[in-house]
Amino acid sequence: MPFIAHALPQAAIERGDVSAGALVSITGVSFAPAVIEEPRFGGRVLRVVFDDVPLPEFTALGRRWIGPTREQVQDAIAFGRECRAAGVEEVAVHCLHGKSRSTAIALALMADALGRGGEGAAVEALLARDLTGKASPNVGVVRVADEILGRGHALEDALADRLPRFVTWRAFWEERGLPPRESLGRG
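Structure tokens predicted for Tyrosine specific protein phosphatases domain-containing protein (187 residues):
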């Protein structure tokens, strides 16, 4: 695979353990932005802010979370395209723990690079780099990426076929207000 997107925890980025040609930095709404040495990534850093929920807004336990917007996912995909056009072969993507938001964006970037029909290969590449075995891509990001990339539900289907915990989280969020994908139509 000529283009790779690595999903990592914020601590790895802040320690400087990562070398990549670019970085997508995902921070939660209520958290301070990551401390990043931007020159380490050739000055190619995209910062986005959203919490680890797939809904536009979710309130529980006295706290309000804000999920990803279509524009944020579109910006990340456009950033990945710009990086590839500039010859960048590796993009690091971080969120706090490197399990949900970052894996979903990394998956979207690799699926975009592979083109239509490459969804399964993108999932395999993502899971091959999941050294902790805890990847669980944010279902909201995956659904929006599927739509933006015009893949119908191919990206979500490939992920569901390979990662049972994704299916479990999808059902969890559908019980809490995420519309079932069937109601979203086919892309």
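The chain has one domain: 4-176.
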